[in-house]
Amino acid sequence: MNFISEFGSTLLFTLRDVAPIVIIILFFQLAVLRQQIPRLKSVLIGVVHVLLGLSLFLMGLEKALFPVGEAMAKQLSDPSFIVDLGVEYLSADWTEYGWIYLFAALIGFATTIAEPSLLAVAIKAGDVSAGTIDKSGLRIVVAIGVAFGISLGCFRIVTGTPLYLYILAGYLIVIVQTIFAPKKIIALAYDSGGVTTSTVTVPIVTALGLGLAKTVPGRDPAIDGFGLIAFASLFPIISVMAYAQFTEWRTLRLMKKSRSSMQQGE
Amino acid sequence: MSRFPSKRTTLLVIGGAYSRLRSSFIDLLPIIVVIAFFQIAVIREPLPNVADILFGTLLVVIGLSLFVQGLETGLFPVGDSLAGALARKGSVFWLLLFAFGLGFTTTFAEPSLIAVAAKSADIAAASQLIDSTQDSLGSYSFGLRLSVAFSVGLAIVIGVFRILKGYPIHYLIIGGYCCVMAITPFAPKEIIGIAYDAGGVTTSTVTVPLVTALGVGLATIIKGRNPLVDGFGLIAMASLLPMIFVMGYGIIIFH
């Protein structure tokens, strides 16, 4: 019974979130376009799937992932845990927080792989590119970007260096890459920044950032605790473009090689 | 089609469901491995409520499978058909109004934005930038949500307009980056972190598939546009503009 009432309240919550979208779509279908949605029945079934799926997903996250992830983020950034590792006293020396960087990178990677928004964009990109963009390949490259970004973001919290310097440096890298990267990937790379951080990643990463800012001496949670999400949205852009550049370079090299070996064979 | 599914279609449905569940489980496997590794090797404390956690994980797997199933039969077709119908109607006004409405309403109701706005109000009150009365906290976070929602609506309008005109996305994004960097020195330092994060949290799990389908659908229908080159980029705009607007909101409120 408990399960049903819990599920009911999550479902209501999801419905409330989705209501504005449904109203907008209905308004445009009925008042502006004045036509029926094609294949209405299958679309409705699909929307019901989305609502049920999202509710179960959120409920499962609340039950399993969030408590564990947040507890672990707190435990790992807890002063007593860090002192237990053999550190004499807590300091703002960045070398003492090794486990944090590793945890940040791994949890960033893992939650990004499970992120439904990224999955949606990857499916669409796979469809549109007729399979030249591999769905799971894109997600892995994005997840590597998030992993690096969150790990670097933790380093920033520990050292207390200003956020905008990192973001500025990231922007400069993105701009330089944009000049050299294959034109086809640019829009998708930019998009993959925004979709990485939603349902799964945000709560755990926020807990990690605020916990860390509370633990490290001299940091103010209000100022230093935020910014991890910004890292997680910036670095996938870089990693996706870098991967596209790498594959382009490799193809060119392979083509050159095969051409020169053909010439030698003649 | 007969009313009763044949044995073969039943098998197909079960097979499809099984493969979806399996791929959802594989999607979650990294999280399970990371958590298990840190619990066993680093933290070395038993997990509380193992039964709850296992049950929750099962729900996540089933939920993700259903979501992906519905994505392909529900959300993507709706986005596609709306993009098609609006493009065929030929009215730029209605198309842009739809873009704005979709961006504004979904962002305003976004739960993670509500949470971030409330948190930000607490921080602003703690730093004595605003009064810590319930009224001023409420109006501060309401204003913040309003400015983020407005900026997302505007971002999608600009993004859709870009698809119509075929401008390259990187001019817009790099221009936006320059705005972010130009406005940062003037923004109060308490709001910079929240502003930079606001970009990432605005686009929800239901909005992303719809907006992506809208962009790709438009780029597919309009002659001379490539769905891959021109269709993507709406989410990027929607993650960039809120940063500028939140910092602008901070400057106006705090000065």
Architecture overview:
The complex is a heterodimer of chains A (266) and B (255). The mean pLDDT of chain A is 85. In chain A, α7 runs parallel beside α11. Chain A has 2 domains: 63 residues, no CATH class; 189 residues, no CATH class. The N and C termini of chain A lie far apart (78 Å). The longest helix of chain A is centred in the C-terminal third of the chain and has 38 residues. By secondary structure, chain A is mostly helical. With 255 residues, chain B is mainly alpha-helical. Chain B folds into 2 domains: 72 residues, no CATH class; 164 residues, no CATH class. Chain B is built from 10 helices and no strands. The longest helix of chain B has 40 residues. Chain B starts with 6 loop residues before the first helix and ends with a helix. At the A-B interface, α1, α2, α4, α5 and α7 of A face α1, α2, α3, α4 and α6 of B.
Keywords:
heterodimer, A: 266 residues, mainly alpha, 2 domains, flat, B: 255 residues
Element order of chain B: H for helix, E for strand: HHHHHHHHHH
Strand content of chain B: under 5%
| Total of helices of chain A | 11
How many discrete domains of chain A? Answer: 2
Largest sheet of chain B: none
Average pLDDT taken over every residue of chain A: 85
Question: Quick one: overall form of chain B?
Answer: flat
- Helix content class of chain A: over 70%
Number of helices of chain B: 10
Q: Determine the strand fraction of chain A and express it as a percent band.
A: under 5%
Q: Rg of chain B, please?
A: 22 Å
Backbone shape of chain A: flat
- State the order of secondary-structure elements of chain A, H for helix, E for strand: HHHHHHHHHHH
Q: Compute the gyration radius of chain A: what is it?
A: 23 Å
- What is the number of beta strands of chain A? 0
